Amino acid sequence: MNIYQSIKMAFKSIAGNKTRSFLTMLGIIIGVSSVITLVSVGQGTTSSITKQLQGLGTDLLTVNIMGRGATTSLSYEEVMELKEISGVKAVSPVISGNATVKKGTVNDTYAVEGITPAYEEVKNFHVQSGRYILDIDNEYRMKVAVIGSEVASDFFGINNPVGQTLQLNGVSFKIVGQLETIGTSATGSNDDKILIPISTAERFLQSRGIRSFTVQADSTELVSSTQERLKAWLDEKFMYADNAYSVFSAQEMMDTLNSTTQMLSLALGGIAGISLLVGGIGIMNIMLVSVSERTREIGVRKAIGAKKRDILLQFLIESTALSGFGGLIGVALGYGASALISSMSTLSTEVSMSIVAVSFSFSLFIGIVFGVIPANKAAKLRPIYALRTD
Asked: Contact at 8 Å (CB) between 243 and 64?
């Protein structure tokens, strides 16, 4: 008997017991769909967080100064010395605070940042109209401001805000530029802030010294070595005091995140894979029952010339077909569940073709492995014994 006849007989047997075949496949269906759904949620979440961290800049180091004793900040000149460190491309000091912003009868509280012109390059945050903060603004402590798109919308609607004035804590600031719309990153919204010259911010926000600044490395590959040199400089500056500063690296965070999520995805896939094993045991159980029910049929086939390998092949094809159909239905359900989760919740999902291929291949493998024992039992039946069975 050729393979085509074996396949035809296997499919005929499955079609003859539709309900039992479906219940047999149920374990495989649940297992494959669970693997695809859980891993897609894990990968989608990882991708979402990675994009937010990339928005912070993978070549950037953010430094926060806590200080030592009465020294809780660095001077502007000390921060600018960092540009001399090997691997440092640019340094952007920031003085942050909040201010009540008013125009006419509209007022609200917004974040205000005192910056230097380097902020534009380091943060990759450009203007859509007007100009940026210039060195001359810092030199003469000009009361000028660059506002985010949300601030512009709140106070000026669709009108151009450049050239207009806003009252910040009762002080008039002339708007010289409007920032492009960036959206929300891991540190919050970038569109509801107001940028002013750092020298103006020192007096306006009554904050002497620099407690936060961002260092841009020459490249992502140099972030680690630049971070070590930066820490050495800060250790010397604060005489190796504990907790005098913190250095945050988005690249370091991404590496840790990727490592953690890979482990999490493996764990989720492993847990879901247990369902596949249970489904395989179900297939073996039903196939053993099927061999017992069809003992006389096997005897007749052997009596008219069927060989041991023909019987073995028929039952192996039947078990593989059961797991294969279950795998296909599981793949479809996995895609559907992932799309449903993405549309009905805030979770992001990302179905990977490699996971689909692995889970479906594993379902076929389960069908072959757990079909061997029943198929072998059927193939070893002696024709005389089989024909005596009712």
From this structure: no
Q: Kindly give the residue spans of alpha helices, DSSP state H, lying in the chain.
A: 3-16, 18-56, 76-81, 118-123, 135-139, 149-156, 198-204, 223-237, 250-293, 295-303, 308-344, 353-379, 383-388
Average pLDDT, the chain: 85
Residue type, 359: S
Tokens of 299: 């005897």
pTM value is 0.61
**Phi–psi pair at 44, nearest 5 degrees:** -65, -40
Give 86-143 pLDDT, tens digit per residue. Answer: 989 999 999 999 999 998 888 899 999 999 999 998 888 889 999 999 999 999 999 9
Distance from C-alpha of 226 to C-alpha of 86, rounded to nearest angstrom: 7
In 10 A of CB 55, how many CB atoms?
Answer: 17
Measured distance CA(9)–CA(288) in Å, rounded? 17
pLDDT greater than 60 at residue 59:
yes
Please give the radius of gyration of the chain, using alpha carbons only, rounded to the nearest integer: 34
Mean pLDDT of 370-383: 81
φ, ψ of residue 285 to 5 degrees: the values are -60, -45
Q: What is the DSSP letter of 74?
A: B
